[in-house]
Amino acid sequence: MGWLVTGAGGMLGRDVTSVLTAAGERLDARDRAGLDVLDADAVQEAVSSLAGPEGPGVVVNCAAWTDVDGAEEREDDATRVNGEGVALLAAACTQTGARLLHVSTDYVFAGDATRPYPEDAPPAPLNAYGRSKLAGERAVLRLHRDGGFVVRTAWLYGQHGRSFVATMARLAAEKAPDGTVDVVQDQLGQPTWSRDLAEQLVALGRSVDAPPGVYHGTSSGETTWHGLARAVFEELGHDPQRVRPTTSEAFRRPAPRPAYSVLGHARWEAAGLSPIRGWREALRAALEAWPGLR
């Protein structure tokens, strides 16, 4: 089966490409320079080229505007990439019959819940980035009803890009043994290793039982940013007491962040798949596999 990965130069895109390559799949991996998702003709050509004896193929859309704070000043630009570009992909996939796995975000929710958001919870984004990603979700679900999958993730980290985990690992090593780091403790979420999400996306694309719609691609369990930072320090052999708790008010940013980003995973059973493993187990595996951290 042919696979097209958009945004293949990013953190998640590189992991999806790696998983598919290791599996020997027929793969067309396109970074930003290789495919502009706002170029309708180029999108149509790329999706159409997937078709082969095995079927019309699968598109994994990792291309996105990811600058959360930048979207506050440039919401139209963010929406063009995260909304209009996704609509072009969805329309092309509808025409050819290809499956579309579109990666979205917890930022489509307000973050005011007290228990995990189910897949059908009403979206209510707090910021421009969340609104732009919601536009993409709606395009997939509207334009590709028979083969459109929205996979929301959160607190993503990995080896191939900037992330909170990488920053904490660097600070743990660079600061003096008694140096401290202040980290927010009033936001709750699910740290998710990009490699785990990549494997889950590939499994979903291969599943013959998976109904189209919304899935939540986050690690199981929950913690705060403070809890995650302490875990990074501890896993790398540093004193977790060096991580001090603070509040979001101490780190004001242009775009408001959801205080609660815990997502439910009930729909994976319908696809015949298990949810992603627990966040702490995944963190340990990620740090073991991360070159140069130990």
Overview of the molecule:
There is one protein chain. This protein has 294 residues and is an alpha/beta fold. It has a domain at 2-158 and 192-218 and 262-277: Rossmann fold. The chain contains 9 helices and 15 strands. It has helices at residues 11-22, 40-48, 70-73, 75-96, 128-143, 164-174, 194-206, 225-235, 279-289, and strands at residues 2-6, 26-30, 58-61, 99-105, 148-153, 156-157, 181-184, 188-189, 192-193, 213-216, 219-220, 223-224, 243-246, 260-261, 276-278. The strands form 5 sheets. Strands 2-1-3-4-5-10 form a 6-stranded parallel beta sheet, sandwiched between helices. Strand 4, helix 5 and strand 5 (148-153) form a beta-alpha-beta unit. The longest helix has 22 residues, at 75-96. It is globular. The protein starts with a strand and ends in a 5-residue tail after the last helix. The mean pLDDT is 95.
Layout of helices and strands, plus pairs?
Elements: E1 2-6, H1 11-22, E2 26-30, H2 40-48, E3 58-61, H3 70-73, H4 75-96, E4 99-105, H5 128-143, E5 148-153, E6 156-157, H6 164-174, E7 181-184, E8 188-189, E9 192-193, H7 194-206, E10 213-216, E11 219-220, E12 223-224, H8 225-235, E13 243-246, E14 260-261, E15 276-278, H9 279-289
Parallel strand pairs: 1-2, 1-3, 3-4, 4-5, 5-10, 6-9, 7-13, 8-14, 11-15
Antiparallel strand pairs: 8-12
Helix pairs in contact: 1-7, 2-4, 4-5, 6-8, 8-9
